[in-house]
Design a protein that fits this description.
With 668 residues, the protein is α/β, with parallel strands linked by helices. It contains 20 helices and 25 strands. It is globular, with a radius of gyration of 24 Å. Bound molecules: flavin-adenine dinucleotide (FAD).
């Protein structure tokens, strides 16, 4: 059920007034549609409402056609944010696209599908004090979201290595490998192999160090983007309202203890008459890393020192909201291709475009392609021992006072665990910082820092909900970030000079021959650093006393029924693109079956004892006894909700079935 508040406010008002919603999901993006659809699936009543500020982009070629990825940036499908002036990046404001459309950023991104490294999830789990967020705990959820297709033949006869066991087979999001591969892509892959980089077996496996071809979120039968709107097919009963911008969470008056949300206020996007909508159970925020913290602050959840001067009364004193912003800062070297080698730049030529469209109609050619070859490099993969010693100095606590003790220790663990710190990728189009020369084809090589030590903020500066918040990623706050990006730029230049890639390259455009010494490279980094579009951490999953905003159950500290389910909860960055990250996939289990998930959520014995006392946990004897028959019956319902036969347990319920059995046997 899809309604539009922008074009038919009265129909929306009538429907909303006539329906009683258990859950209001704020933001119909990557995470929001996954959670809403899983919550709605199998229910006959329409008790899940999604409020999405953007419009519906389904069928728009700028979204659907893989080779047009990037064309939606700067359009009405993009919030088009900018950062504040960046002190360590020559005072520049940096463009920050975010999806403003059904499907959110999964509708406008570059379709790369990867998962984090196992060790990163384990550090995340330890920051959250819960093994529920380790890689192994989440793998079933990752797999449940995916329907992966093994690599087939492509135009460069390159064979990505692929481990079937790492992929899902029944999920809503299709992943596959495009039939077209740019010659420069295979040149980049071979150049890195020739430079001694290992092959990463599968970029979904948790062992991501090395070079490989990444799957893309492409439906291999239609050659179109597969993104989070695909979830809606699981639950046609979910009510989605487009062009609906939530401006506030409304709290129940007169409660003591944790704040209780009773619904939200929503306006047509950009302004208009406000409606209030009631949630009988929960308000679930999935407005993304920029706007989930913004909505909390607008609703009185945050640091009183920020809220009160803006005239916003504090509902929950939670200073971590909007803090701990982490991104993947990026630099891009650009090379001119020799004549005869194709790139997406040539789509500006009408006959090249006509030919590309004709091929695409047959499922072939340059428009079927998304980004392919990626390398995730550990320090030792691109630095010598002298350079690694510099890393220790620049990464010391003394040089990074912005990190609190927990974040410093977690970052150190990651650097010591030998996880990838730098991602390299090649892009088959001009992606530099100046302007492309007419008629010239390019290959751009990006270096993206995966474990930045800088920590930024996103905070409101006005009580006007339609005003964007101040985004301050504090790029290059850590001297280590500048150093590592400079070394990546150098490494990419040497890679472009390796014979396998050099045979396609006519000359270097950016940074150009004037940049030679380390100082030159670092100055250049300051002049060009930008985002890889991967912000997270602004509603961090950590204990409240350490600046956390949500617990491992994704519930906002100090609230009874508000959760955040998007990537803003990830407490420390990961070496991966983010659309896969499994917060949302797990969230619906937390919401729907909190009692099933309790045991997995914490390793802290005192919390178990507390929950037992409240009649919630395993071994508890609540006032209303658990009926083993009822429990066992409900054991099977989640599987049927997914339409998954019991033997095909490519799905989370298997693990949780075991929890549940233990729970049932323990019941009085
Ligand atoms: C240009 C770009 C390229 C990227 N490339 C890749 C890639 O190739 N691979 C990859 O894995 N990741 C990529 N990413 C990152 C990835 O897409 C995002 O990290 C991920 O999709 C974020 O999901 P989310 O659910 O947190 O937020 P989003 O998907 O952004 O969803 C947030 C939703 O909330 C809505 N919203 C916001 N405020 C309100 C409000 N007040 N009321 C109602 N609705 C609201 C928004 O309109 C949006 O639909 C890219 C991102 C961008 C922007």
């Amino acid at each position: 059920v899809v309604l539009d508040l922008g074009s038919d406010a009265s129909a929306v008002a009538t429907t909303l007034a006539a329906t009683s919603f258990d859950y209001i999901v704020v933001g119909g993006g990557t995470a929001g549609l996954a959670v809403a659809s899983r919550l709605g699936a199998g229910n006959t009543s329409s008790n899940v409402l999604v409020l999405e500020a953007g419009s519906d982009g389904q069928g728009d070629p700028r979204i659907d056609v893989p080779g047009f990825a990037g064309a939606a940036l700067g359009t009405s499908f993009d919030w088009g944010f900018s950062s504040t002036a960046q002190e360590n990046a020559n005072g520049r404001s940096i463009y920050w696209p975010r999806g403003k459309v059904l499907g959110g950023s999964s509708a406008i991104n570059f379709l790369v599908s990867t998962r984090p490294n196992t060790a990163e999830h384990d550090v995340w789990a330890s920051l959250a004090n819960s093994s529920a967020w380790s890689f192994n705990s989440l793998l079933p959820y990752y797999r449940a979201s995916e329907r992966g297709s093994a690599p087939g033949p492509n135009s460069q006869a390159q064979v990505p290595t692929w481990a079937a066991a790492s992929h899902g087979t029944t999920g809503p999001i299709r992943t596959s490998f495009a039939p077209y591969m740019a010659p420069s892509f295979s040149g980049f892959f071979k150049a890195l192999r020739a430079r001694g980089k290992p092959v990463a077996t599968d970029l979904h496996s948790g062992a991501n160090a090395g070079v490989n071809y990444a799957p893309s979120t492409i439906d291999p039968s239609a050659h179109t983007r597969s993104y989070s709107v695909a979830y809606l097919a699981l639950a046609p009963n979910v009510v989605v309202v487009l062009n609906a911008q939530v401006t506030n969470i409304n709290w129940k008056a007169g409660t003591t203890g944790d704040a209780v949300a009773e619904g939200v206020t929503v306006v047509p996007t950009g302004g208009g008459d406000a409606l209030t909508v009631v949630a009988r159970r929960e308000v679930i925020l999935s407005a993304g890393a920029v706007q989930s913290p913004q909505l909390l602050e607008l609703s009185g959840v945050g640091n009183p020192a920020i809220l009160n001067p803006l005239g916003i009364a504090t509902v929950v004193d939670l200073p971590g909201v909007g803090e701990n912003l982490q991104d993947h800062p990026a630099i891009v070297d650009v090379y001119r291709l020799k004549p005869g080698f194709p790139s997406l730049d040539q789509l500006s030529n009408a006959s090249f475009m006509d030919d590309a469209l004709a091929q695409y109609a047959n499922g072939q050619g340059i428009l079927t392609e998304a980004l392919f070859p990626l390398a995730f490099l550990r320090l030792g993969d691109f630095l010598n021992s002298t350079e690694r010693a510099v890393v220790s100095t620049l990464g010391s606590a003394a040089n990074n006072p912005q990190l609190d003790a927990r974040q410093f220790s977690a970052s150190t663990q990651l650097y010591n665990a030998n996880v990838p710190v730098m991602e390299l990728l090649s892009i088959n189009v001009y992606f530099g910082d100046a302007t492309a020369e007419p008629g010239q084809a390019y290959v751009s090589l990006a270096g993206c820092l995966q474990h930045s030590l800088s920590r930024g903020t996103i905070h409101i500066t006005s009580s006007n909900p339609l005003a964007p918040p101040a985004i301050d990623p504090k790029y290059l706050q850590s001297p280590l970030d500048t150093y590592l990006l400079a070394q990546a730029g150098r490494y990419l230049r040497r890679t472009a000079q390796q014979a396998n890639l050099a045979k396609f390259v006519a000359s270097e455009k950016e940074p150009g021959p004037a940049v030679q010494s380390l100082d030159d490279w670092q100055a250049w980094v300051r002049s060009v650093v930008r985002t890889e579009y991967h912000p997270l951490g602004t509603c961090s999953m950590q204990p409240r006393q350490y600046g956390g905003v949500v617990g491992p159950d994704l519930k906002v500290h100090g609230t009874a029924n508000v959760r955040v389910v998007d990537v803003s909860v990830v407490p420390i960055h990961v070496s991966s693109h983010l659309q896969t990250v499994a917060c949302a996939s797990r969230a619906h289990f937390l919401v729907r079956h909190p009692w099933r998930e309790l045991e997995a959520l914490t390793d802290d014995a005192s919390v178990h004892a507390h929950r037992r006392d409240r009649g919630e946990g395993r071994g508890a004897h609540p006032g209303r006894p658990v009926s083993p028959v009822r429990t066992l019956r409900s054991l099977f319902s989640p599987l049927s909700r997914f339409g998954v036969p019991l033997h095909a347990c490519d799905d989370p319920p298997l693990t949780h079935t075991l929890h549940l059995l233990a729970f049932a046997l323990d019941a009085p």
